[in-house]
Specification:
alpha+beta, Cyclophilin, 2 domains, 21 strands, elongated
Length: about 325
């Protein structure tokens, strides 16, 4: 075995970028809550951006490495430590066999990602390694990781021990990802109007854009429930169920809203008052219960421009990380 779960965290699952193309069967894409952070984690260690990795929530797990490994941790800051040494986020680290990774403190964010060079040996279901908790499939037997679980890693041709200095348990490698433009302001989320937006009352439209909402404690991977001003429609209507996606903002019968997240259902019958743009889903995913959120309208052209910018940045990062790793081991 390559690593062991010494102590389970709140919710630790194997994820990738999602299970796309099965919505007509009622199977949602799932995958990482923060796909940007997950892709960057894989790139930093030379993996394909869609390789399986661990999604971790706080309180985090304790993980024992049973072999030398190249790892990266991205996303939320849970102050990761290898034995008694702090390690940086968004930067690759070589760790020695028999070191213990743990997360003693929540500083910022909601979800972090652990990638390991080579990737995890995981269960593939419908072309994805992502854990689907409802179906009990994918990842590690379709379940969250628990104490005593042992995970295999895929083979690597890199001799990591040769990168470690004598009597040192880790080595931080000299490249990192600059993600400030992606997570610059977590509280402001850009949205485009939903199909039922015109049916909101004028006061509700004003409240949606002018007032601040907060993340409700009952939020989970399926949806972030919001707490704030009560919104209402101009008149009562019955809607047919229609397709929804990651980032769809629905108005609930009690006047509160819910933003659908990675494990969202494939269709829904509540009014769709808005949609979070794809480029701001990473920001949204890193919000915690109690965090404020304010919505601001944008247009399709701006949403596409921001998403293309993210994709361009990821392509540059992938090439740069691959070249740096090749220089190091050749």
């Amino acid at each position: 075995m390559s690593l062991s779960i010494i102590k389970a965290g709140l919710l630790d699952t194997i994820q990738d970028t999602g299970r796309n193309g099965y919505g007509n069967w009622g199977i949602n894409p799932g995958g990482a809550m923060d796909k940007y952070a997950a892709q960057v984690a894989n790139m930093l260690v030379g993996n394909c951006c869609t390789a399986p990795l661990l999604e971790i929530h706080f309180p985090g797990p304790q993980i024992l490495f049973e072999q030398n490994a190249l790892i990266a941790i991205t996303g939320a800051d849970f102050e990761p430590m290898l034995n008694d040494e702090h390690i940086p986020l968004w930067q690759p680290v070589v760790t020695r066999k028999n070191t213990l990774l743990h997360f003693p403190k929540l500083n910022k964010g909601s979800t972090c990602y652990l990638s390991i060079h080579g990737g995890f040996c995981a269960e593939k279901w419908l072309n994805s390694y992502s854990t689907n908790l409802k179906a009990g499939a994918g990842g590690s037997n379709g379940q969250p990781l628990k104490k005593g679980d042992e995970l295999n890693l895929k083979e690597s041709t890199i001799y990591f021990a040769g990168l470690l200095r004598e009597n040192k348990n880790l080595r931080v490698l000299p490249w990192h990802a600059d993600v400030r433009s992606v997570y610059d302001d977590l509280s402001e989320i850009l949205v485009i109007p939903g199909h039922e937006w015109p049916l909101l009352s004028e006061d509700s439209k004003k409240d949606f854009l002018d007032k601040e909402f907060s993340i409700h404690p009952s939020s989970d991977r399926m949806g972030f429930q919001l707490k704030g001003a009560e919104l209402c429609m101009c008149r009562k209507i019955e809607l047919l169920s229609s397709p929804v996606s990651f980032g769809t903002i629905q108005l609930l019968p009690d006047g509160q809203m819910i933003v659908l997240m990675a494990d969202h259902q494939t269709t829904g019958g509540y009014p769709r008052v808005g949609h979070v743009i794809s480029a701001h889903l990473p920001r949204l995913a890193q919000l915690r219960p109690g965090d404020p959120v304010k919505f601001k309208f944008t247009d399709i052209e701006t949403a596409e421009k921001l998403l293309n910018m993210h994709d361009h940045q990821l392509k540059i990062l992938q090439r740069a990380c691959s070249n740096r790793l090749n220089e190091l081991v050749c």
